[in-house]
Amino acid sequence: MADDKNSWTEERLDKLRALWDKGLSISQIGEELGVTRNAIAGKAHRLGLPKRQSPIASKKAAVEKQPVLEDVQELPLRLALRKLNWSRSKCAWPSGDPKHTDFNFCGKPIVAGKPYCNDHCIEAYTTSRDG
After folding, report:
1. Count of CB atoms situated within 10 Å of the CB of 73
2. Angle of the 26-33 helix axis to the 10-22 helix axis, nearest 10
3. pLDDT tens digits, 3-56
């Protein structure tokens, strides 16, 4: 019979998803749930949770955090917009007018299964309409 500490109950799966959505590392989630990081990585893969960047790539991304439009005033708009850094793992909430060179995307980590960060999901997905 499986040890309760190591069985994947709905409650533990919900906690795994919540910690994943908060952006905790695989090791931190494993520590919180009392299992190995490999157990978390495997379960996250089987659940189809969004992939994580490696810590090495994350450090590089931190340096390149904000999309940069270099010398945008000198570039035609179509060329300036090509310099935007966009990724499916980053919030795609638009900011600014796409007809101007200061156009950008939010870029925060997304909520699993959604194209936006938590703040923009709240704004985009409403459950009721104002009367």
Report:
1. 7
2. 150
3. 556 689 999 999 999 999 888 888 899 999 999 989 988 898 899 988 876 666
C-alpha to C-alpha distance for 81 and 101, rounded to whole angstroms: 7
**Is residue 63 within a helix (H) or strand (E), and if so which, with residue range?**
helix 55-63
Q: Which residues pair with 3 in a beta bridge?
A: none
Radius of gyration of the chain (CA): 19
Evaluate whether 30 touches 37 at the Cβ level (below 8 Å). Answer: yes
- DSSP summary character for residue 110: P
How far from the centroid of its chain's Cα atoms is residue 47's Cα?
Answer: 16
* Reported pTM: 0.41
54, 41 Cβ separation under 8 angstroms: no
Residue 43's Cβ-side half-sphere holds a number of Cα atoms within 13 Å equal to 22
Residue 105: phi, psi to the nearest 5? -120, 155
DSSP bridge pairs for 104: 95
Torsion of CA 106, 111, 116, 119, to 10 degrees: -70
Residues with Cβ within 8 Å of 59's Cβ and at least 6 positions away in sequence, in order, are none
Tell me, what amino acid is at 96?
G
